[in-house]
Structures are given as C-alpha cells and as structure tokens.
Amino acid sequence: MILRAKGCPGDSHRVGEGTVSISGGGPRRAVSWEVVVMPSGPSGGAERVHHVAVFNVPMSGHVIPTLAVVRELVERGHRVSYAVTAQFADEVRAAGATPVLYEVPDPGEAPEDMVVGVTGAVGVNVAALPQLEAAFGADVPDVVLSDVYAWAGPLLAARWGVPAVQLAPTHIPYDGVVRDFYGLEDIAQIPGFPQLAQALEEFGVPGGVHALTLAPPKTIAFFPRSFQRRAQTVRAGEAHWVGPAIGDRSFQGRWHRPEGDKPVLYVSLGSQFNQRPEFYRSCTQAFQGRGWHVVMSVGADVAATGLGPSADGFEVHATVPQLDVLAAASVFVTHGGMGSLMEAFSLGVPVVVVPQMAEQRVNAAQVEELGVGRHLPREQATADALREAVQAVMDDPRITGAVARLRRDISTAGGAATAADIIEKTLADTPLTTC
C-alpha cells in the first residue's frame, strides 16, 4: 500500500482517503490523499514509478555530470523529466529522460567574471520559470533535482510541495566561498539577486538568497569529500559527496590512440573559455619535437579559424571524446573545471591547471593542496613554463602517489548509484506522493 495524492493514474485499488496539509518549504496547502494497493510486479512486490524532475542551466559542465544519474534512475524504473534548453535535448534523451525544453535569449560568450555570469543565470531562471511551470502543468513531479544555478527548481518545488535536492558540479558553499568565487563580502551584492529574492518570497521559499545559495538543505556533489574546499566549514544541511557520475559517453564519438609508444599529452580548456589561440600556439611551441603525441581540443571557433599547419605529433580537434583521450593520457593540461578534473583523476591522470576564471582558480588551489598536479596561472603559461610544468608532473612520484589516493577516493564515493540511492531515500522519506 502507498499514500499518494488523489487522482493519480494507473491500476490500483483504493482502501482509504482523506485530506492533509503539507509544505515543501513554502506555504502550506491542502492535498487530498488516498491509500491504494498497487498491482504486483514480476518479483511479487508493488511497483511504484516515481516522477523525477531535473532542472539545469544550459552549460555542458553542469548538464553532463547529471546524465549518469538520470540513466540510473531510469534503469530503476523511475520516470525522469529534464528541464533544459534544446542544445542538450539529444544528450538528455539518450540518458533516458524526457526533455522539457525552455528558451532563453542567447547569452553570448561566457563571461570570466562570475558576478556577471551568475547575474546572467538569474535572467535565465526568470525567463525559464513561467515556461517550465506551464510545461509541467498538472504533471507535478515527486521530487525536484536542481543544479546549483537552476533556481527555478527549488522555486517550483516549494510551490508544488515536493522535496528538492541540489546537484552540485562544483564546491558546496564553504567559509570564504563568496570572496573566492565572486570577490564580494556578501552574496546579496550580486546585481541580479534582488530579483531572485523577490521570486523566493513570491514562491514561499524560506531563508532568502543566503539560505538558497549558501546553506542548501540537501546536496549531492559530483566529487569526493577529499576534494571539497574547506570541507569542515560546509553549511549544507545534508551534504553527500558521491564523486563523479561517469556513464556512457558514446554520444560523443570515439577516439583511438595512435600506434607507437609516445606518451599522450591532452590539452583542453573546456567548452566555455576555449577561444585562446595564443595558448594553443604556446602548447605547440612547448611540445613540438619533444617526444609527445599531443591531442588538443580547441573548440569550434578556434578550429574554424585555424592555428596554422598542424605540427608533427599533434592532433587538433574542435572537440574530442574526453574520456577516451584521458584513458590514454599521461598528463592533462586543463582549465580546471571540476568535471574535467574528476574525469582525469578517476583515470589516474595528473594535471597542469591553467585556470580561466575564479572557480577554476579555487580548483587549482585544491589541486596543489592535495599534491595531484600543478597550478600554472594563465598569464605565466609560456611555452617554457608549460613544458617545465608538464615534465615536473610526469617525474614527481609524490604526485603519482597523491593521484592514486584521490583515484581511490573517487572509486569508493559511489557515483551515480549512490546518488540514486539518496534520491530514492528522499522519496521514501516523503510519504505523501504526487502522481
């Protein structure tokens, strides 16, 4: 028997009904309920298909870490709706979810200033919110999963009276995070946040922007606790570090290591801040004729413009299937995005981090603190400095050992399966369900 909102579709036998007042963190509301007996499944137990809604922002580094969790939930029999823009619809569909598309104005090139970026994220959410409320309509989910910048998720969860879980592809807020990420003393100083605060009040989300952004009630983070910056100061009500959720990436294509015994060096600045032709030329100068096979992922804009004739031993692509390349790589020169770092460390690859913005500088500091690579500031990334840093990472047994320890932390953190367990426990702890 299960307790659920009255009127849910599906075969069942009602054995009781009534009304209860509930709250999902917002205003209390009356919900008519019924107790039903569900038909038995193949194993003899009652089958319960939950509706899980995922809300995300249109950024690869935020969408891709969630896809294996989506696949895991779908394989466990749940129905997943995924709110995202059209550019990610194919990836979401391949993971087994139903895309719920929203439209936002073209944001243009991603800003390096995180204050500007987060202000833009407020605009994305404000534009998406009415579209998504209308799109879900009466098909209210049982639980909402939302990215750290997808605030439409907790807003609608409060309105619907359902639990919300935050999905964090970056550090859970810690003491000093506002200064480190934004260069501010108070997160409420972000220009777009008065508008966000107004929406929180309207939707009945308690605590305002400080609680929402700095002390989320339940968070699943896609990296191990050992990589969390100042983990002892994290303020989340319930924090779960499950490590990277790495699943099938066949939609990205395949890459095969060339014949020969040259070590592979992989160079990528990610999907947002990759328009750096001068950096890629420095890499060519640094490693040409030095015994490496170099794979560079440079983004569509740089690839279309061209970097001149390709040097011997170099592959230059707009994008590559990153996991395939990392599986063969000896060193990874990276911007230091959390997803890229976790993929490298999960495969035992040390890194040279050349951060492009504040969040990546925090990651670079953590890399050095754990001894799993080197931090090379962007303005110092000359050909000589790049060559020296890569060789140092290759030759240092302390770095090799530290990477092995972090790789063990990742392998025992649980990944997508543990994330799905946490989500299912959240559902189990919420006895009154919607359809």
Sequence-ordered SSE layout with sheet pairings:
Elements: E1 2-5, E2 13-22, E3 29-37, E4 51-55, H1 60-75, E5 79-84, H2 89-94, E6 98-101, H3 114-136, E7 143-147, H4 152-160, E8 164-168, H5 177-182, H6 193-203, H7 208-214, E9 219-221, E10 239-241, E11 264-268, H8 277-287, E12 293-297, H9 299-305, E13 314-317, H10 322-328, E14 329-334, H11 338-346, E15 351-353, H12 358-370, E16 373-375, H13 383-395, H14 397-413, H15 415-428
Parallel strand pairs: 4-5, 4-7, 5-6, 7-8, 8-9, 9-10, 11-12, 11-14, 12-13, 14-15, 15-16
Antiparallel strand pairs: 1-3, 2-3
Describe this structure in words.
This protein is an alpha/beta fold and about 425 residues long. It folds into 3 domains: about 1-35, no CATH class; about 50-245 and about 415-430, 3-Layer(aba) Sandwich (Rossmann fold), CATH 3.40.50; about 250-415, Rossmann fold. About 40% of the residues lie in helices and about 20% in strands. The chain has 15 helices and 16 strands. The chain has helices at about 60-75, 90-95, 115-135, 150-160, 175-180, 195-205, 210-215, 275-285, 300-305, 320-330, 340-345, 360-370, 385-395, 395-415, 415-430; strands at about 1-5, 15-20, 30-35, 50-55, 80-85, 100, 145, 165-170, 220, 240, 265-270, 295, 315, 330-335, 350-355, 375. The strands form 3 sheets. The protein has a 7-stranded parallel β-sheet, sandwiched between helices. β7, α4 and β8 form a beta-alpha-beta unit. α1 (about 60-75) crosses α15 and α8 packs across α13. The longest helix has 23 residues, at about 115-135. The model is unreliable at about 20-30 and about 35-45 (pLDDT under 50). It comes from Streptomyces longispororuber. Keywords: Transferase. InterPro entries: EryCIII-like_C (IPR010610), Glycosyltransferase_28 (IPR050426), UDP_glucos_trans (IPR002213), UDPGT_MGT-like (IPR006326). Belongs to the UDP-glycosyltransferase family. It holds the Pfam family EryCIII-like_C.
